[in-house]
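Show me a record, fold above all:
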Amino acid sequence: LSATPANQAVNADKKKIAIQFDEYIKLENASEKVVVSPPQQEMPNVRAAGKRIRIDLFDTLRPNTTYTVDFADAIVDNNESNPMGNFTYSFSTGPTIDTMEVSGYVLNAADLEPIKGIMVGLYEVNEDSIVPDSTFRTKPFDRVSRTNGSGKFVIKGVSAKKTYRAFALKDMDNNFQFSQKSEQLAFDSLLFRASCRPDLRLDTIW
């Protein structure tokens, strides 16, 4: 029904968020399914209370940054546990909000089977960066998501003005960077920018 701050609000500086629904809801496996991006060093508090979801962010908000809270299918109704579907709340601390998305699949190189629940993140990079580099060892992702059961990920709140590189990480210690030998890692050497173009479809009815 509503949210405070409003969904896709700009110039927002509140670290306490409330999302109102028209029926009683609950969150299932919130710690696994709900992803806040940019990733937070101190774990956010995301909880359901009656017809409302409350989110408390504890990290300092970055200036001119789009924040997204991706609930995936964690929101379900209280009676029958029917999932709401993929819902993402977003706001920006600056005057504009980034609305582009990056999506794809993560597959196991050994057998090409999809990998479920692995973290996929983007780093902002300069186009002259050397590939690969040690970025994933020294700093957390700039934007992040997780794969579903089909190995698919969707990273939201991406800027069309920035260049990115994508990594996948089985993060064992929840620090959003490669820090243990036991952590699985994948990367793509491609540097890319999110873009869009008109999708023209011809009318074939005669």
User: Anything to note?
Assistant: DSSP finds two helices and 15 strands in the chain. The longest strand covers residues 152-158. The two ends are 43 Å apart (CA to CA).
